[in-house]
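Q: Sequence in, structure out?
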Amino acid sequence: MKIVLAGNPNAGKTTLFNALTKSKLKTGNWHGVTTRPASKLCGGITYVDVPGMYSFNPYSMEENSAAEEIRSADIVINVADGLTLKNSLVLTRTILSMNKRTVLYVTKLRQLKRRGGRLDAAALSQILGIEVVTDLKELKRILKNPSDIKSVQNRSTASAKIGLDKAYYGGNCSLTRAEKLFYNRYFALAFFIAAVLLMFFMAFFPGMPGDALKGLTENLINEKLGGAVKNILPDGKVRSLVCDGIIGGAGGVLSFIPQLAVLFLFLTLLDESGVMSALSFVTDGVFQKVKLSGRAAFSLISGFGCTAAAILTTRGFTSRSTQRRAIAVLAYIPCGAKMPVFLTLLSPLFSNPFPAISALYFAGIAIAMTACRLSGGGEEELLSEVAPVALPSAGVVIKKLYFYIKGFIIKVATVVMLFCVVSWVLSNFTFTFSPCGIEDSMLADLSRFILPFFRAMGLDDWRLAYAMISGFAAKENVAATIGMLMPEGAGLGMASGVAASVFILTCPACVSAFSASCREIGFKATFKYFCIQLIGAFLAAYAVHFILSLAL
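A: Exactly. Output:
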């Protein structure tokens, strides 16, 4: 049996799906978190979470996939937003007209009650002729016997007896003071820029929580853990693998967790408070000038966390050409994995790296917007839910922050660690697998072939050339590789350090993002953008190194 959870965007479908199936899909307080159907078999029933939709006349690519899933469903759980119930019932009536066995699950009743509204679920059930549920326990009870769920019964008779206005009152729908502020484009943009600067300040400024905790974590990993392992293991290749390869490489990346936590905390607060949703609304005019819509704000801000995840949000665009443009420029938005690289390259050059790293992040946004403006194609229209602006739930924020940090640790403990082990082997053995010094290793011989491409940006060490290309597997690998192969530090001057940072900023994203792009727009277009971005990154880095070499 197939049960589909359907409804308008931002109604709470994914939250309900997670509760019914004990899943951990990403949730968010904005339109477009779910971009493709997700399914899970639970208790012999296949539950399907679909993207939000308004009607069966698809406005976007994600709505089309949702409509297809609903048509093939045995039962539909129609998730409706209690704050905008009358709008949600438009889709409900369409589903009922298809003679689908349906349960209406109404969310956000606490917010409805807070603004003076009310819902009589029993009366609404009579009007619609289906079960109307407002409680998760009650819904689970009904789903224990899904065969008892019937299609619409006595809808016309019930509608004549009771009017919808008697069953539902939306309460005071006027904007709150906070919403009036955040729906003002000047205040919203100023607030967002100030929030981003505060985020960087808290993460990177000397003595602030991110920087202070990074120092403690670094000492714990390198000095305490590394020192303990050195005392246990005898001198030799095994100790070198554990201390230099794993702890020095992957362990060094883990020391950036406090600063990443600050970054993800601010992004989560913007998301859950509804500020991100308001920002998409007020910036629609700005994005229209670069041939996108306010929906692009979701994708660009998501890009601060993960480029691959941001690519998936582009399914909410109305046309393939707009989606391709958005995907093409997302590589310029610095993801969370680039932050450790910037810090590794720039911290030795600046006593306070806060201004330099902030400038790189804003430069990435500017490059992305400029690239969109210069590309061809028409404008994109905006159709999106705007979430209420309110203080976020502390529990939800903590859960999402835990989810992000856990994902980062898992990635470091698997992908980055495996890469470090492989790199250590390559840097400690010849092609005949005889132990050797690092300069005689097969890694050194292979890396010297690519070194000429990096000399023009001031990188004369093959270890740095290898570190730069290691980022195509995962950007965290760049910091891990430098930490493993160059424990004394990269040793770059101002011109070469900034040029290397510009290269990382503008080069193509990791293999995960490449794969996500291939799924969305195909290999041919993805490879084309990859080549353009790679050539552009080299040219930008060369230019920056040349200019700074003359100026300094």
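The longest strand covers residues 75-81.
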